[in-house]
C-alpha cells in the first residue's frame, strides 16, 4: 500500500511518490531533524519477508561502506509502522535508461558518464564489493551531468568460495527481473562465482548501449538471452553506429570477452584506457591471434601495474600528510583555456568545497591580503603559485594548493596539487576530466573530495560534509563568477556597493543561489538597509537546502539575528556550529557579542570573544569572508 503525503516513518515526513519497483516504492521525504529533503526507499509490510529484509540490509551496508561522489549516499536505515526503509540522498535528473531512450548518446557524454561509473566501480571493488546488477536503470544522471550508481541490493562481498547458489539467489530474489539477464556476465549466467570482472562485463553492455541504443547480443538469433550471451559473439558496435571510434570499440570488445581472464583485470586499468582515449588512440588488441599472446600482454600489464603501485605506495608512505592543526593557502587556478569565466571562479568553488571540511583549515583571504601588504604587493594581487608559496611560508602554513584547468577541444582537465611550501615536496596530486564546460563544477567537486580523503581527513567526515558544488552554490559558472567578484569587492576592496552589485547579478543568473542571497542580506545589514537585509536573509533561509552544512549554519544564524531577533535560537545554532566546525570564527563572535550577553552569560561571552580573536588571526572565515563586526539586527 502506498504512503500518502504527510504520513511519517520515524522522523521522515512523506512529501510525494517518486517511483515504484520490485523492492517497493521510493518517496521524496523530509528529514524533520536535519531539515533536508531525502529519498526514502520503503518496503511495504506485505512484502517484508526475511529475504527482502536481508536485501534491504545488504543494500544499506554496501552503499554506506562506500564514500564516493558517484555512488548514491545512504544516510539511514530503519523500520517504522511495519515498513523497513532506507534513507538516501535525493537526486534530481533521470536514469541512464531514460536518457538513452532509443537513441545513442553523444560521444562526449558517453565518455564523461563512463569515467564516472568506472570511478564508482573502482571504489566499490577496492572495498571488495561487487555490485552484480550494473545496468542503465541503476545509473542515475543528474541534471548537471553527474552520474550516480544506485541499488546495491544485490551487492556481495567478493569471495572465492561464492557458488552457484549466489547466482540462483540473484535470479529469484525480490526486485530482480528478466531484463537484468541481458547485463549478466557469462559466469554469472552459468551460476559460477563472480568477481569485479563480472561488473566490468555488465558495464561493457551498458557502454555498448550508450553508443548504439541497443544491446550487443541479439536474442532473436538464440532461443534465450542466456544462450545469446553464452554462445553468440557480440554484434560489432560500429555496425550499429559508424560514429563509434575504433579505439572505443576495442575497449568494448575487451570488456565483453567471455573468458574473464581476457577482460580488463580492474576498473583502474579500464579508466586509464578511457582517459587515454580522450587525448589519442588506445593501442588495445581486442582479439589477438592467439591466447598465449593475450595472456602475455595481461601478465606484462600486471607487472607494470604492480611496479607502479609499489612506487606509488613508497611515495605515499614518505609523503607528509596534513593534520587538523595545519593551515593551507589556496592559490588562484592556472587557466590555459582562454575562457575568463574560470578566472577566480574555480578558486572560489574549490574554497566552498574545502570549507565544508571540519578537518582542513584555510588561511583567510583577509590574512592573505595583510601578508601581501607586508610583502609590498597590492592586496588584490593575483595569487600565483609562486606568490602563494611565499604567503604560505610567511604564515607558517603547511601546504599550498595549486589548481589548474586546461582544454582539449571541447573537453577540460582539472588538476590539483598540494605542495609543502618550504620544500616543494608534493603531498598529493589529483586530476579529473570534464567532457564539457557544464561539467567543470562537477569535476571540481570530485577532485576536492579525493583530495580531502587522501591528505588525512576521515572518510566518515568527507561523507558527512560533502555537498556537491552545484547544490552547495549554483550550477551556473557565470553566477559563481559574479559571486566570486562580489566577495572580492567585499574583502580586498572593502567596497560594499560593488559587492552588492555583483551579488545581485549572481542572483539574476541563478534565482536559487542561497548563499548569494545570504551575503547580500549581510552586506545590506552592514550598510543599514534593514528592510533589504531582512528580505534577502529570508530568501536565503527559504533556500537553505541549497547550501553546504557550513553555509547553512551561517544562513540560519544571520536569519535569527537580522530577521527574527530570536537570540535563543541563535545561541543554539551557533553552539552546534562551533561543535561541528571547532575552529570557526563567526559563531564565536555571535555568541560573544549577542547571545550570551543577552542572557547575562558574561563570562562565557568574554571567553568566546577571546576564542574568536585567536581564531580570526589565522583561520579562514566562512565563504562570506566577514571583515567587520555585525552592528546588530537591522531596524
Outline the structure in words.
The chain has 635 residues and is α+β, with helices and mostly antiparallel strands. It has four domains: 82 residues, Phosphorylase Kinase, domain 1, CATH 3.30.200; 194 residues, Transferase(Phosphotransferase) domain 1 (Transferase(Phosphotransferase), domain 1, Orthogonal Bundle); 132 residues, 3-Layer(aba) Sandwich (Rossmann fold); 163 residues, Serine Threonine Protein Phosphatase 5, Tetratricopeptide repeat (Alpha Horseshoe). Helices cover 47% and strands 14% of the residues. It has 25 helices and 16 strands. Strands 1-2-3-4-6-5 form a six-stranded antiparallel β-sheet. Strands 12, 13, 14, 15 and 16 form a five-stranded mixed β-sheet that branches. A hairpin with a 4-residue loop joins strand 3 and strand 4. Helix 3 packs antiparallel against helix 10, helix 6 runs antiparallel to helix 9 and helix 23 runs antiparallel to helix 24. The radius of gyration is 26 Å and the shape is globular. The C terminus is likely disordered.
Concise overview:
The protein is α+β, with helices and mostly antiparallel strands and 635 residues long.
Key traits:
5-stranded mixed β-sheet, 16 strands, disordered C terminus, 4 domains, Transferase(Phosphotransferase), domain 1, 6-stranded antiparallel β-sheet, 635 residues, alpha+beta, Phosphorylase Kinase, domain 1, globular, Rossmann fold, 47% helix
The helix-and-strand class reads alpha+beta
CATH class of the largest domain: Mainly Alpha
Number of helices: 25
Largest sheet: 6 strands, antiparallel
C-alpha geometry:
globular
Radius of gyration, Cα only, in angstroms? 26 Å
Reported by name, the CATH topology of the largest domain is Transferase(Phosphotransferase), domain 1
Determine the N-to-C terminus distance. 52 Å
Strand arrangement across the biggest beta sheet? 1-2-3-4-6-5
Q: Tally the structural domains.
A: 4
Mean pLDDT: 80
The assigned CATH architecture of the largest domain is Orthogonal Bundle
Count of DSSP strands: 16
| Quaternary state of the chains | single chain
Helical amount: 40-55%
Strand content: 5-15%
The CATH superfamily of the largest domain turns out to be Transferase(Phosphotransferase) domain 1
- Low confidence ranges: 158-179, 280-320, 618-635
Amino acid at each position: 500500500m502506498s504512503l500518502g503525503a504527510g504520513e511519517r516513518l520515524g522522523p521522515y515526513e512523506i512529501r510525494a511518490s517518486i517511483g515504484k519497483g520490485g523492492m517497493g516504492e521510493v518517496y521524496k521525504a523530509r528529514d524533520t531533524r536535519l531539515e533536508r529533503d531525502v529519498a526514502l526507499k520503503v518496503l511495504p509490510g506485505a512484502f517484508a519477508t526475511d529475504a527482502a529484509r536481508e536485501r534491504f540490509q545488504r543494500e544499506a551496508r554496501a552503499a554506506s561502506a562506500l564514500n564516493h561522489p558517484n555512488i548514491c549516499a545512504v544516510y539511514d536505515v530503519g523500520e517504522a509502522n511495519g515498513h523497513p526503509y532506507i534513507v538516501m540522498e535525493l537526486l534530481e535528473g533521470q536514469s541512464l535508461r531514460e536518457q538513452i531512450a532509443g537513441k545513442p548518446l553523444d560521444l562526449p557524454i558517453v565518455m564523461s558518464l563512463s569515467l564516472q561509473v568506472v570511478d564508482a566501480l573502482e571504489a566499490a571493488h577496492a572495498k571488495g564489493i561487487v555490485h552484480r546488477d550494473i545496468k542503465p536503470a541503476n545509473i542515475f544522471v543528474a541534471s548537471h551531468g553527474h552520474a550516480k550508481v544506485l541499488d546495491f541490493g544485490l551487492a556481495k562481498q567478493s569471495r572465492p568460495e561464492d557458488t552457484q547458489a549466489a547466482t540462483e539467489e540473484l535470479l529469484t530474489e525480490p526486485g530482480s527481473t528478466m531484463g537484468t539477464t541481458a547485463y549478466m556476465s557469462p559466469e554469472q549466467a552459468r551460476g559460477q562465482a563472480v568477481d569485479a570482472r563480472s561488473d566490468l562485463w555488465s558495464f561493457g553492455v551498458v557502454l555498448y548501449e550508450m553508443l548504439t541504443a541497443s544491446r550487443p547480443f541479439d536474442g532473436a538469433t538464440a532461443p534465450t538471452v542466456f544462450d545469446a550471451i553464452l554462445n553468440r559473439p557480440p554484434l560489432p558496435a560500429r555496425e550499429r553506429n559508424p560514429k563509434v571510434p575504433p579505439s572505443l570499440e576495442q575497449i568494448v570488445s575487451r570488456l565483453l570477452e567471455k573468458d574473464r581472464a581476457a577482460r580488463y583485470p580492474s576498473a583502474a586499468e579500464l579508466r586509464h584506457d578511457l582517459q587515454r582515449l580522450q587525448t589519442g588512440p588506445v593501442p588495445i588488441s581486442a582479439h589477438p591471434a592467439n591466447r598465449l599472446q593475450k595472456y602475455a600482454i595481461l601478465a606484462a600489464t600486471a607487472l607494470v601495474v604492480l611496479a607502479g603501485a609499489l612506487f606509488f605506495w613508497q611515495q605515499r608512505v614518505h609523503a607528509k600528510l596534513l593534520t587538523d592543526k595545519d593551515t593551507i593557502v589556496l592559490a588562484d587556478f592556472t587557466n590555459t583555456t582562454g575562457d575568463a569565466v574560470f578566472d577566480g571562479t574555480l578558486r572560489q568553488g574549490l574554497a566552498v568545497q574545502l570549507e565544508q571540511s571540519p578537518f582542513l583549515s584555510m588561511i583567510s583571504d583577509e590574512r592573505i591580503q595583510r601578508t601581501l601588504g607586508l610583502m609590498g604587493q597590492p592586496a588584490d594581487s593575483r595569487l600565483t603559485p609562486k606568490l602563494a608559496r611565499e604567503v604560505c611560508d610567511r604564515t607558517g602554513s603547511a601546504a599550498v594548493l595549486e589548481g589548474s584547468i586546461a582544454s582539449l577541444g571541447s573537453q577540460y582537465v582539472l588538476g590539483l596539487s598540494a605542495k609543502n611550501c618550504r620544500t616543494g615536496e608534493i603531498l598529493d596530486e589529483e586530476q579529473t576530466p570534464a567532457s564539457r564546460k557544464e561539467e567543470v563544477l562537477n569535476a571540481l567537486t570530485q577532485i576536492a573530495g579525493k583530495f580531502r580523503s587522501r591528505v588525512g581527513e576521515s572518510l566518515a567526515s568527507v561523507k558527512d560534509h560533502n555537498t556537491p558544488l552545484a547544490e552547495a552554490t549554483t550550477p551556473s559558472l557565470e553566477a559563481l563568477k559574479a559571486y566570486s567578484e562580489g566577495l572580492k569587492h567585499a574583502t580586498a576592496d572593502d567596497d560594499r556597493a560593488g559587492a552588492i552589485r555583483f551579488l545581485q547579478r549572481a542572483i539574476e543568473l541563478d534565482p536559487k543561489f542561497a548563499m548569494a542571497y545570504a551575503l547580500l542580506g549581510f552586506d545590506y545589514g552592514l550598510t543599514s538597509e534593514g528592510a533589504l537585509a531582512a528580505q534577502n536573509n529570508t530568501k536565503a533561509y527559504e533556500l537553505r537546502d541549497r547550501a553546504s552544512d557550513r553555509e547553512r549554519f551561517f544562513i540560519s544564524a544571520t536569519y535569527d539575528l537580522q530577521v527574527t531577533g530570536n537570540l535563543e535560537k541563535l545561541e543554539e545554532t551557533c553552539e552546534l556550529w562551533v561543535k561541528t566546525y571547532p575552529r570557526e570564527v563567526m559563531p564565536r563572535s555571535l555568541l560573544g557579542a549577542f547571545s550570551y550577553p543577552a542572557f547575562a552569560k558574561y563570562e562565557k561571552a568574554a571567553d568566546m570573544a577571546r576564542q574568536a580573536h585567536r581564531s580570526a588571526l589565522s583561520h579562514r572565515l566562512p565563504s562570506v569572508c566577514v571583515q567587520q563586526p555585525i552592528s546588530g539586527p537591522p531596524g
